[in-house]
Design brief:
The chain has 230 residues and is an alpha/beta fold. It is built from 6 helices and 10 strands, in the order βαβββαβββαβαβαβα. Strands 5-9-8-6-10 form a 5-stranded mixed β-barrel, surrounded by 4 helices. Strand 3 and strand 4 form a beta hairpin. The termini are close together.
């Protein structure tokens, strides 16, 4: 069973529309769609925005549906000059950029008393996903790298620079590290997939409004193809 999480309805509706034999369960104000997607058993759900919503959603997928893999699909802001709007980032690992317990001697981003700063993604799945996106979205570039998450929409050059310098991620968003964190605690393989909607700088608000649909379309095409080739 594969669990697929998107923060917003736009990020998952293109998958739900082509599912078969769907049953629906409501829990924690979330709607879980269980069924077949290209003959694969999946559960597709909109978590809502932010790390708490994403974490709650991931734990429900593990507890209620016994998913064997979690994929988090959505959009993000680019933190790398090579990565343009519409391009795809596939996670190698994830980090909480807004976790700060440095006063206790922990590095920035470290959850105190945990044994890792970065939550590793499933590397085999990441490599497979990169190949799939290159095949089905040849008009865009595909990158493997770190994803940074925090409960804030990054839209300033100053904040962007701090996150880049501190963690070296390729993109920034608001859910992935929470899902990665839950997956790590439960020994569940996971992957974050992010289509770039903006540059996470002073133009981010304007870019997001213009390019969100393009980014979501690329992401939906990719996700359908990844499951079809699973």
């Amino acid at each position: 069973m594969i669990g697929i999480i998107g923060a917003m309805a736009e990020e998952v509706q293109g998958l739900i529309q082509v599912m078969e034999n769907v049953s629906v369960m409501e829990k924690a104000s979330m709607t879980f769609h269980k069924g077949q997607l290209y003959k694969q058993e999946v559960v597709v759900v909109r978590s809502g925005i932010g790390k708490v919503n994403a974490a709650v959603c991931a734990q429900i997928l593990i507890d209620e549906f016994a998913v064997e893999t979690i994929i988090n699909t959505g959009i993000a802001g680019s933190l790398d000059e090579r990565i343009d709007i519409g391009d795809m980032v596939i996670s190698t690992d994830a980090v909480h950029h807004d976790m700060d317990a440095t006063i206790f001697g922990d590095p920035l981003g470290q959850v105190p008393r945990m044994d890792t700063l970065y939550f590793p993604a499933d590397q085999g799945l990441a490599a497979k996903a990169k190949g799939v996106n290159e095949a089905v979205n040849p008009q865009i570039k595909t990158f493997l790298g770190r994803v940074a998450s925090g409960d804030q929409f990054v839209s300033s050059k100053e904040k962007k620079a701090v996150i880049k310098e501190s963690f070296g991620p390729l993109c920034v968003e608001m859910e992935g590290a929470a899902i990665a964190h839950v997956a790590y605690l439960n020994h569940c393989p996971y992957l974050i997939v992010r289509s770039i909607s903006d540059k996470a700088d002073d133009s981010a608000t304007e870019d997001y409004e213009v390019f969100e649909k393009k980014a979501v379309a690329n992401s939906t095409t990719f996700m359908r193809s990844l499951i079809e080739r699973w």
